[in-house]
Design brief:
Belongs to the CoA-transferase III family. One of its GO terms (biological process) is bile acid metabolic process. The protein is an alpha+beta fold and about 270 residues long. The protein has 10 helices and 8 strands. The chain folds into 4 domains: about 60 residues, no CATH class; about 80 residues, formyl-coa transferase, domain 3, CATH 3.30.1540.10; about 45 residues, no CATH class; about 40 residues, no CATH class.
Amino acid sequence: MFKMSAFRCTKLDISPNVLKRLVCIAVHNCVLLCVFLSHKLLKYTKFVCILKPSLHGSESIMLWGGFSLVEGAAFTGSFLWKSRRIGIWSRPRGENLLDSGAPFYDTYKTLDGKYLAVGAIETEFYDQLLKGLELDAGELPPQMSFSDWPELKQLFTERFASKTQADWLMIFDGTDACVTPVLSFDQVSSHPHNRERGSFMKDSSGEEFPRPAPVLSRTPAEPCLASDPAVGEHTVEVLLDYGYTSAEIDEMLAAGVVQCNAGKAKL
């Protein structure tokens, strides 16, 4: 079975002061419940934090705050703003570390017309990448030599184009070179890693969808397995709720004003 590192675990030693900054407010022996009235945390303009002290403490404290979509987008782009000063993202588009500028962070076409994704930024991963490509690091420019990236990318392009995707996957099997196949939607769920972990599920109609993540041991998510409604499936029901009669709905359907899924929607 094809194996590779799916993720790396890092042990963090966090001081109380750092932890306090991470959660905004740290209260001894309390439960912090943050209710973000948002989509993906940063969409809506209001959120509320409810602090519930210990049973012997004072009453709960409610804190209100707000931000805009622009502020949310700017904040999530903090890395880009900081990277401008250290040269990681200060060059034109397509010439930076994470926008396909770096030869070790890009996608490459293989001999059979398929693609591989490469993300070997750290030195130890980059060394594994060069080893798999049968390249001698001593004969190449330094990894972070920006001016040499175009030439190095051309070399990588030629190497990856010399073998099929399957051949490269065998070469990098079990390594930490951060080389992975670029898969289609139909291939993702059948990939050995995803199949072994059960990363995808099927609804009642057989359609596949990602399993909720992260997987929690005590309170695992229970996804709805009902199939998604078909377009127009509830047209009639909605119009009836708005007060239209069955005769009026028939007229609108006949005139093409509205449409419904004939297989499911019934008067």
